[in-house]
Amino acid sequence: QSALTQPASVSGSPGQSIAISCTGTSSDVGGYNLVSWYQQHPGKAPKLMIYGVNNRPSGVSDRFSGSKSGSTASLTISGLQADDEADYYCSSYTSSSTWLFGGGTKVTV
Amino acid sequence: EVQLVESGGGLVQPGGSLRLSCVASRFTISRSKATFNDAWMNWVRQAPGKGLEWVANIKGDGSEKNYVDSVKGRFTISRDNAKNSVYLQMNSLRADDTALYYCVSGYYDTGDYWGQGMLVTVSS
């Protein structure tokens, strides 16, 4: 299976909002409401930011939100802050009972 | 909060084997109060300078295991709930298996908690 498709980079100014897209197929993103988003700072382990398309784990800022339309999911970061600068990965459960990650998006603030 | 500690990585020649271990402590998934015995455990890897790739997972009772196609027949995931541990036996290693391997706990679709990673280098 090919990786989910994410833009390589997205940038924004402090206080702005940005959106990162994640495009898959009917066998993954389009077939299940099981899309997650992870944030990874350089040299650190990934951190779960969104699960089940639009749910935030406790402790994650409400500036982070998720959505999905068809086979494309999106992560929106509002009120962009310097610490939001990181790599972001989407992942989806698939019809093969596996996970599939996107290629990652570098967010620059 | 859940702590996951990986061990067993290192340098191995192509065709060789390694066994990664992951021990979990303070284990309760906050959004469900699930314990280690209830949790799906995963291995996710990241090649140097590259993105994340899911490798394998195992259900809480060990009754279901899934693998990415590129490791099927070479890697085996297992767990010992009495020791709060999960393992990844890696055989017939290839250069493209070189990566930082993360132990990840959570559900069948999501990784709530991640270890710090263990480097596996396959090189002659």
Summed up:
Chain A is mainly β and 109 residues long. Chain A contains no helices and 9 strands.
Q: Give the number of helices of chain B.
A: 0
Helical amount among residues of chain A, as a percent range? Answer: under 10%
Taken from the alpha-carbon principal axes, the silhouette of chain A is globular
Strand content of chain B: over 45%
Shape of chain B: globular
Rg of chain A, rounded, reads 13 Å
Helix content, binned percent of chain B: under 10%
Termini Cα gap of chain A: 32 Å
User: In percent, how much strand structure appears in the residues of chain A?
Assistant: 35-45%
Characteristics of this structure?
heterodimer, A: 109 residues, mainly beta, six-stranded mixed beta sheet, three-stranded antiparallel beta sheet, B: 124 residues, seven-stranded mixed beta sheet, four-stranded antiparallel beta sheet, 50% strand
Give a description of the structure.
The complex is a heterodimer of chains A (109) and B (124). Chain A is mostly beta strands and 109 residues long. Chain A contains no helices and 9 strands. In chain A, a hairpin with a 2-residue loop joins strand 5 (64-69) and strand 6 (72-77). Chain A starts with 8 loop residues before the first strand and ends with a strand. The mean pLDDT of chain A is 97. In chain B, the strands form 2 sheets. In chain B, strands 2, 4, 5, 6, 9, 10 and 11 form a 7-stranded mixed β-sheet that branches. In chain B, strands 1-3-8-7 form a 4-stranded antiparallel β-sheet, with no helix packed on it. In chain B, a hairpin with a 6-residue loop joins strand 5 and strand 6. Chain B starts with a strand and ends with a strand.
Describe the secondary-structure layout.
The complex is a heterodimer of chains A (109) and B (124).
Chain A: E1 9-11, E2 18-23, E3 35-40, E4 47-50, E5 64-69, E6 72-77, E7 86-93, E8 99-101, E9 105-108
Parallel strand pairs in A: 1-9
Antiparallel strand pairs in A: 2-6, 3-4, 3-7, 5-6, 7-8, 7-9
Chain B: E1 3-7, E2 10-12, E3 18-25, E4 40-46, E5 52-58, E6 65-67, E7 75-80, E8 85-90, E9 99-106, E10 111-114, E11 118-122
Parallel strand pairs in B: 2-11
Antiparallel strand pairs in B: 1-3, 3-8, 4-5, 4-9, 5-6, 7-8, 9-10, 9-11
